Amino acid sequence: MPEIDIEAIRAKLGTTIVEEDEATAAPLRGMVVTFDRSEKPPVRGEPIAPGWHWAYFPAASRLSGLGADGLPLTGGVLPEMPLPRRMYAGATLTFHAPILVGDALRRETEFSDVQLRKGGTGTLIIATQTKRFYTPRGLALTEDQVGVFREAVPPGTKSGIPATEPPPTGMTWVREWKPDPVSLFRYSALTFNPHRIHYDRPYAMETEGFPGLVVHGPFSQQCLLDLLRDNCARPLLRFEMRARAPLFDTAPFTVMGRLVGENEAELFAVGPSGGIAMQARATLG
Which of 160, 190, 180 is nearest to 53 (CA)? Predict the structure, then answer.
């Protein structure tokens, strides 16, 4: 395990930044076509779909502030981490009130938790950012976003990919997705995500050791959110998602789900091997 001073990182907990944006309509039109939806995009005064808040608050770092992987090194609430590889690991979304197209937005982002762990693929730093989205009517959304920092891949070797178990049987909602470079590029553009693993195949394969382009964690998460709202009209109060293994543009993946109990649903993204790549629990109103 590399020598990591986790206490020095924990000393930065509580760091907070405040940003402003506007819930414009243009990127929502992009969301509709990127996820191949037949719905009309919302217009001024109408609510945005769950997950579409990712189109706002781009991390607008200058080129000089980007790392070798394309992601910003500075400008956010996280301190510089001693492990170089970064991945989206999950999120908990709590929906308090709608965000409407045209709303002025304020976002408070706090560095809220950090953990040092030894996993099957090496040393991990797991960092949580708590993001609170406000409209003129008050708090609309709280997002506890989890990212993982990993060790570099030795030259010429492959990235370790966790093995996972299959989902439960009896899923009632099922849709297959065929990720492709165009869709991944579109989503990177919509969310202003410069991480090279999503669009730079030589970098993804030769530097990070992956078998192809990596499907964004939030992309797969959006597929689950869309599956839920296409099959259940009840209000979504809370959505807890955990990423278990990466997905790639080299093979289709499947999203599936079902209602469990009176007020909950469970959802899964399943890779081509049949193992769970992402799992989520939704609380319904």
Answer: 190
